[in-house]
TrEMBL record:
It comes from the Bacteria. One of its GO terms (molecular function) is maltose binding. InterPro entries: SBP. It comes from Thermolongibacillus altinsuensis. The keyword Signal applies. PANTHER family: MALTOSE-BINDING PERIPLASMIC PROTEIN, MALTOSE_MALTODEXTRIN-BINDING PERIPLASMIC PROTEIN. GO terms for biological process: maltodextrin transmembrane transport; maltose transport. GO terms for cellular component: ATP-binding cassette (ABC) transporter complex, substrate-binding subunit-containing. Transmembrane segments: none annotated. Belongs to the bacterial solute-binding protein 1 family. Keywords: Signal, Transport. This is Carbohydrate ABC transporter substrate-binding protein (CUT1 family).
């Protein structure tokens, strides 16, 4: 039995178990109330699992958890870092009935996990003072199930923005591009052979999704791949042409870099599209680079960008649900979120916290905040992981000139849908 089926079984068992509890007799309910009163006076341990982060982020999380434990002295948080194969480990533990009470869940993975029934709906715990409307709507909606219930509250996010080298732009006498056509022309003028490329490209679906759909085509339709649509090919062809025809774009590996931020920091790209995470990286690793950020260039007159977000979710089988909710509500509430996002490594999903910390007016970060309301969240159905893998494999071959883009995407779509049907 595959993991998805196992998880579905766990979900059914959880629901059945919940139904049995609902049918308790009056005597049992009275005993439960007495037990709840007793439990309120006892020390409760809540397990929290995540994938870690850089030392500053780890310090900020510890600070946030310390404040939580001061506020709720009867709740002890046991934090565990799962550094490798995070989702595989989480799924295995959920199957075995040993999942953490609270854990990180990426929006990309959320639809499939919500479908299994192993997550606790959180609507029933929400009180008026939690203020759901304060969250950026696209980010909150990413953790809603098909039943309309909320299964997670987003802890942070980033959108994409254009990073540009101020010195290179000044020397070339160029303005920051506001449209994709302007970006393509600027990239040509900024390119200096193979020493400096005008544009650094991340040739992967997670970065190109919003471009792929900009001409009216769909990457995913009815939970199956549909990116061979001529409208998708038309939208993505300019990216390939910048590499093969204009010679003004390259991917990081072509210049010995591991990602766009490094390529940009080394001065091998005059422009890259990256997330908020690149700001601190560049300031710390390449302090001599003078750079600016701008909202993504428009496509067909429309503003578009991507958003990546992670939520705190609750294990439906948790034995400490009230304590688990207190932890989630603190971490994603105004107080906890302000501590966690205070250094700018991640952005607050609450509009009020972004305003309080000044990120909506910050010279470098305001463009990321502005993009949140119109961003496409990196998520689409339960089969996106399969669709993504096949897209990436074949798009790179087209980007490198090994085959036409339409042909590459057609093969990728067919392979993806065969894999989906065979699940």
């Amino acid at each position: 039995m595959n993991k998805k089926k196992w998880l579905a079984t766990v979900g059914v068992s959880t629901m059945l178990f919940g139904s049995v509890l609902t049918g308790c007799s009056g005597g049992e309910k009275a005993a439960e109330k007495e037990g709840d009163k007793q439990a309120a006076d006892e020390k409760v341990e809540v397990t929290l699992a995540g994938w870690g982060g850089n030392p500053v982020e780890q310090k900020l999380l510890k600070q946030t958890l310390d404040e939580f434990e001061k506020k709720y002295p009867n709740i002890k948080v046991k934090y565990e870092v799962i550094s490798e194969q995070y989702m595989d480990v989480i799924k295995t533990r959920l199957i075995g009935g040993e999942g953490p009470d609270v854990f990180y869940l990426d929006a990309f993975e959320a639809p499939a996990l919500i479908e299994t029934g192993v997550l606790e709906p959180l609507d029933q715990y929400v009180t008026d003072d939690f203020d759901i409307n304060d969250f950026e709507k696209p980010l909150l909606d990413a953790f809603k199930g098909e039943d309309g219930k909320i299964y997670g509250f987003p802890k942070d996010y980033s959108t994409l923005a254009l990073f540009y080298n101020k010195k290179m732009f000044e020397e070339a006498g160029l303005e920051v591009p506001k449209t994709w056509d302007e970006l393509r022309e600027a990239a040509k003028k900024l390119t200096k052979g193979t020493e400096v490329y005008g544009f650094g490209v991340a040739p992967e679906l997670a970065r190109l999704y919003y471009i792929a759909e900009s001409k009216g085509g769909k990457v995913v339709t009815d939970n199956k791949a549909s990116f061979a649509d001529p409208k998708v090919v038309e939208a993505l062809q300019p990216i390939v042409d910048m590499h093969l025809k204009d010679k003004s774009a390259a991917q990081p590996s072509e210049v010995g870099a591991s990602w766009g931020g490094e390529m940009f920091g080394q001065g091998k790209a005059a422009m890259v599209i990256e997330g908020n995470w690149a700001i601190n990286f560049l300031q710390e690793t390449f302090p001599n680079i003078e750079f600016g950020t701008a909202e993504m260039p428009t496509i067909n007159g429309q503003k578009r960008t991507m958003a990546y977000t992670v939520a705190y979710v609750m294990n439906a089988s948790s034995k400490n649900k009230e304590a688990a909710w207190k932890l989630i509500s603190f971490l994603t509430g105004k107080e906890g979120m302000k501590i966690w996002t205070s250094k700018g490594y991640t952005l607050p999903t609450r509009k009020s916290v972004a305003a309080e910390l000044g990120y909506d007016k910050d010279e470098l970060r305001k463009v990321f905040v502005a993009g949140a309301e119109y961003a496409t969240v990196w998520q689409n159905g339960t089969n996106l992981p399969i669709i993504m893998n096949n897209f990436n494999n074949q798009f790179v071959s087209a980007f490198l000139g090994e085959r036409p883009l339409a042909e590459a995407l057609k093969e990728a779509q067919e392979t993806a849908n065969k894999e989906i049907e065979a699940k």
